[in-house]
């Protein structure tokens, strides 16, 4: 098996609905995102997927989330913008392009706290 990892980041603000504590207030994060793809067959060049393709897709998704108020994003109007749900959102969007190669998405909201989504 081969596993690829691409890391990027974005900054945004949010607050958590139905939460008691500091995170119920408006605040922001510099989110770090790790995307993992996995497969057992390489192409004729010897690549699972070209890193530039993974980076391009991830950048499109993160540009959509960068420097916005996540609670007003179409998806997060009805889904609480937790790290867990952000990881799932990015995973689902990446899966549209990379289908059965998607392994997981890890979203770091701080240096020592992250959520991972996988199927």
TrEMBL record:
Gene3D superfamilies per the UniProt record, alphabetical: 6-pyruvoyl tetrahydropterin synthase/QueD (3.30.479.10)
Lyase found in the keyword field: yes
GO molecular-function terms, A-Z: 6-carboxytetrahydropterin synthase activity; metal ion binding
GO biological process: tRNA queuosine(34) biosynthetic process
Residues that coordinate or bind Zn(2+): 14, 27, 29
Keyword tags: Lyase, Metal-binding, Queuosine biosynthesis, Zinc
Active site, UniProt feature: 23 (proton acceptor), 67 (charge relay system), 109 (charge relay system)
Highest taxon listed in the record's lineage: Bacteria
Catalysed reactions, semicolon-separated: 7,8-dihydroneopterin 3'-triphosphate + H2O = 6-carboxy-5,6,7,8-tetrahydropterin + triphosphate + acetaldehyde + 2 H(+)
Family: Belongs to the PTPS family. QueD subfamily.
Protein name per the record: 6-carboxy-5,6,7,8-tetrahydropterin synthase
Organism: Deferribacter autotrophicus
């Amino acid at each position: 098996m081969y596993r690829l990892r691409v890391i990027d980041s974005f900054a945004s603000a949010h607050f958590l609905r139905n939460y008691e504590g500091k995170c119920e207030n408006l605040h922001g994060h510099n989110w770090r995102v790790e995307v993992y793809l996995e497969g057992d067959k390489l192409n004729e060049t010897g690549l699972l997927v070209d890193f530039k393709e993974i980076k391009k897709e991830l950048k499109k998704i993160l540009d959509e989330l960068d420097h916005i108020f996540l609670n007003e994003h179409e998806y997060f109007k009805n889904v609480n913008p937790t790290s867990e749900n952000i990881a799932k959102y990015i995973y689902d969007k990446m899966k549209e392009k990379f289908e059965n190669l998607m392994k997981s998405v890890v979203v770091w909201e701080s240096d020592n706290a992250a959520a991972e989504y996988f199927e």
